[in-house]
Design a protein that fits this description.
The chain is α/β, with parallel strands linked by helices. It folds into 2 domains: about 10-105, Nonspecific Lipid-transfer Protein, Chain A (2-Layer Sandwich), CATH 3.30.1050; about 125-395, Rossmann fold, CATH 3.40.50. It is about 45% helix and about 15% strand. It contains 16 helices and 11 strands. Helix 4 packs antiparallel against helix 5 (about 75-85). The protein is elongated, with a radius of gyration of 23 Å.
């Protein structure tokens, strides 16, 4: 984590009392957090500051103008997120701690919420998927490579055995696990759904496996074609939605790392897997998870995953899987590993702030900074889980 913010005696001298804070322009915010367990500081547009809680401030909120002041005073996390993206407020210090305030804020934005469900009804799931993926992934690869591991740029969690491991080591452990459990061998052909920036392809093809990837991100496909040429690899890359993809080929294995969150119709997806697998084939699947379908903050819906994106809901997924011949061979909870992965991604992004802002703008830096640190907190607080599993398509099921 980042260090806590040091508040000097001189700074503390300018801090107003609790009773004054309650009467300040921060309104209900000041009253709500006067005795908060996580101490923090709010710096007003005129340079004066207000302290909340006891002890050294873990983080600092800088209010830059009246729009920022109104957002903070609203106690609405969606409005506060908007204000941060607009530069009306700044946040620094331990970036995990601010998210502890979320539970006492409101976040009900009816238009944003309804549009999630109306969109696929009006335009269909495939078109909704394309719009959602485009908004998140169709940024030049250098943006994502600024925070993913530089050796193995995989946009899902590694598998950690200890907190001091590098993300590269943890990701290769995950790849080793997937390769072994899928029972892959040279000459086998795999289908990866959403191959991203090719980390798994590089790993698998170096071991003699033939790789096909499908994605609805044109930026990803273009990047992978260039990368394949650089490496001398014969990767087959297809721009297609999984639900529309048609082929007579049967694959030895299907790999879907961190993409099930974009595919909430589990029964349709599982049947699609069966149509693509050879009898006896296997699936590696992992994804971030929660207990309720479509549970997502308004910030995530507006700026990170629009459409009817949903974290994996394990009991629903297993219920749908039980209606097919597919069988789960192994399942693991990787919550701690995803927490450690997000910590590293968030630190990488902050370390590359100047590059990201200069090349991709403050908006993209800020929206992903809030997302990465927010997800770090959600895994730490157990609000999110993460599961990886191996699924088998028995030969006698055909």
């Amino acid at each position: 984590m980042t260090d806590t913010v040091d508040v000097s005696a001189d700074r503390a001298a300018g801090v107003v009392s609790e009773s004054s804070a309650k009467r300040s322009l921060l309104g209900r915010f000041a009253a709500q957090y006067a005795d908060v367990a996580v101490p923090f500081e709010v710096v007003m547009p005129n340079g004066t500051s207000q302290r909340f809680g006891q002890g050294a401030a873990a983080f600092r909120i800088g209010v830059n103008n009246r729009n920022g002041l109104r957002a903070i005073a609203s106690l609405d996390e969606g409005r506060i997120g908007n204000a941060y993206l607009a530069g009306d407020i700044d946040i620094d210090g331990d970036m995990v701690k601010p998210f502890e305030l979320r539970g006492s804020m409101k976040d009900f934005h009816i238009v944003t919420e309804l549009w999630r469900y109306i969109q696929p009804l009006l335009f269909g799931q495939v078109r909704t998927n394309r719009a959602a993926i485009t908004s998140h992934y169709d940024i030049p690869a250098e943006f994502f490579l600024s925070f993913l591991d530089p050796k193995t740029p995989c946009y899902t969690q590694g598998v950690y055995e200890s907190p001091d491991e590098t993300l590269d080591v943890a990701t290769l452990r995950k790849f080793d696990y997937a390769f072994e459990k899928l029972k892959l061998k040279p000459g086998d052909r795999i289908l990866e759904i959403g191959p991203g920036w090719g980390a798994w392809f590089e790993y698998a093809s170096a071991r003699g496996v033939k790789c096909t990837g499908i994605s609805i991100s044109k930026v990803s496909i273009d990047y992978l074609r260039k990368r394949a040429k650089e490496l001398g690899r014969d990767w087959e890359l297809i721009e297609s939605d999984l639900l529309e993809y048609k082929t007579d080929r049967k694959y030895d294995a299907v790999v879907i790392m961190g993409v099930i969150e974009h595919l909430p119709d589990y029964l349709r997806v599982l049947r699609k897997f069966m149509s693509l697998l050879k009898p006896g084939g296997r699936i590696f699947l992992d994804g971030s998870a929660c207990t309720r379908k479509f549970e997502l903050s308004s910030y995530m819906v507006k700026y990170i995953y629009p459409g009817n994106h949903s974290f994996l809901v394990l009991h629903d997924f297993l219920d749908k899987l039980a209606r097919t011949p597919l069988q789960v061979e192994e399942i693991f909870n990787d919550r701690v590993s995803y927490f450690r992965t997000f910590v590293q991604w968030a630190k990488n992004l902050d370390a590359n702030k100047d590059f990201v802002v200069e090349k991709f703008g403050a908006f993209n830096y800020r929206r992903f900074r809030l997302y990465l640190w927010g997800a770090t907190y959600e895994f730490l607080s157990r609000s999110l889980d993460c599961y990886r599993m191996i699924i088998h398509y028995p030969e006698d099921a055909v």
